[in-house]
Design brief:
372 residues, five-stranded antiparallel beta sheet, Heat Shock Protein 90, five-stranded mixed beta sheet, 11 helices, alpha+beta, Beta-Lactamase
Amino acid sequence: MATETKSSHELQALLDAAVDGVVVIDHRGSIQSFNRSAERLFGYEAEEVIGSNVSVLMGEEDRIAHDGHLQRYVTTRLPHIIGKGREVYAKCKDGRIFPALLSVGAVVGEEPPRFVGIIRDITASRRADEESLRLQDRLMHVSRLATVGEMASGVAHELNQPLAAIATYAHACDRLLALPDPEIAEVQSALRQIASQALRAGDIIQKLRKLARAEDSARTPADINSVITELADLIQSNAKAHGVEYRQELAPNLPAINIDRAQIQQVVLNLVRNALEALALGQIDARELVLRTRATANADVEVSICDNGPGVDESLKYRIFDPFCSTKAAGTGLGLPISRTIVQTHGGALDYRPNQPMGACFVLTLPSTRTN
């Protein structure tokens, strides 16, 4: 008897030394042991819950499912939650609900079985994860604004064309109307051209606003060629401003992909901007930038942005996706890491390979809806 009492006290001391809450229940779900950490976690004294059903410590959804899990194991001995960690919602004495990591084990050699539950409050880690996601979203938005901002010369060139046309047609209208016998049909034609060019300018601004806008991620099925074609005018303008010949080679009939269009467009623009800046540094007579799409052997979609510039230095090619690694004097070194993060959250990959015979090639792979 004394030995049993000593063993019982030693067991309780071990339970009370644990930093996580430890709860022992029988096969009916009645609480048999409740350690000190569990008392602090749930706000109950052990005496208040010993003999009560363990569901008193659970949120509504887990309470409903618990008895079924318990009965299934007692009847079949097939583990469903035994030996596995899972996230649940626990309930304190004061009614507060908190997220917890629960691990359940069966006491070996006991019949009917008893179970040990280890509970850890993960409120702080959940909060940290949420803050990390918010920070990541802010960084992505800042990167998107930086991408659009750094391509401002091309944007200005693209807007200047319809604005110049509007000015030209407006002056023409003024001259026509000043004639003694103005040709109303010609004036009307010029006014229609003004309206058309104004709509074109508005369309450019709308596209830029869409790219720069911070908004909740909304993934929808999309055709990658359509996503890239929306950027064609902007990319072409920037390529001209840098003295670069830009080509698109878009494979037809590609499978659909499930993406956030604005985020993937941000990645493409960032890679294009990097290529244009690299080409500007190279001593090359015929600067080229080629954007290609194709289907992979796994029925995924691949986008490659390749240039014939100086390429990535051998000492940097394994670090270019590391935060703050930059070859630019004023660069933040965040563009490529953020781009890779965006692609990875879509279930894809972003990699680098040397272009042949010279230059750099960044390859973006995204899973098709067939393989999701």
